[in-house]
């Protein structure tokens, strides 16, 4: 019985870590992995989604719909940011880093001034379940299923729809796409908005599990970048295996030595991957396919 409980606990922690890495990095992977824009305001889009989700849920909106409202609000803000600022900074990576960092600071301090240092949150739904002498949140299992569904949805969107084909063509060969009649500015705006919306969805999904504070996005951003860097340029080939490997490392070290060692393990894994495989796991997978 003790072996079963320990095994279940390990699998549960792995699923929880995997879901967190996938959900938190999806928006960053679209913006950074596909567009090459290092978005340091990623955490603030997550914060936006969480705040809107909590506010609408407390207003009586069903939680799933409140999460969609959070994602939509972040997507709209992302498209506004792309049109007003980011559109002028493509192919200027250092400038885009500074601009998004400035947006991050403005958003964090603006929320702090307008809404205060904390906001009333919402309770975690679905309750818990007992395995042995330990209790586990059922909602964490829902998050794992949501991560799998998110990966599948992104694959279908970018590889099985007209928008996906146009978006990939525009980002890879913008001059050719424009010559063929594609409105590249519109595609860039929609893609950036999609990435921001996915970040807002991450905030909405994790809003029931976190304290609502203006700096809550910082909880996500480090592990988001870690996952994207380890996964490599192709988010669909690299994101899932990167999240699985990093989740296994984090779950194992957390179970054996504590949360601090789990975070240290993630950073060491990034250093090793960058040193051995500068192109990330997606480059390795594509090399095997050849």
UniProtKB/TrEMBL annotation:
Main location, first listed in the record: membrane
Record field: transmembrane: 18-41, 61-81, 93-116, 136-158, 187-206, 237-258, 264-285
GO CC terms, sorted: plasma membrane
Residue stretches in coiled coil: none
Keywords: Amino-acid transport, Cell membrane, Membrane, Transmembrane, Transmembrane helix, Transport
Membrane-topology annotation of the record: Multi-pass membrane protein
A GO molecular function held by the record: transmembrane transporter activity
Any Gene Ontology biological process: amino acid transport
Subcellular location: Cell membrane
PANTHER family linked: ABC TRANSPORTER PERMEASE PROTEIN, BRANCHED-CHAIN AMINO ACID TRANSPORT SYSTEM PERMEASE PROTEIN LIVH
Family label: Belongs to the binding-protein-dependent transport system permease family. LivHM subfamily.
Protein name: High-affinity branched-chain amino acid transport system permease protein LivH
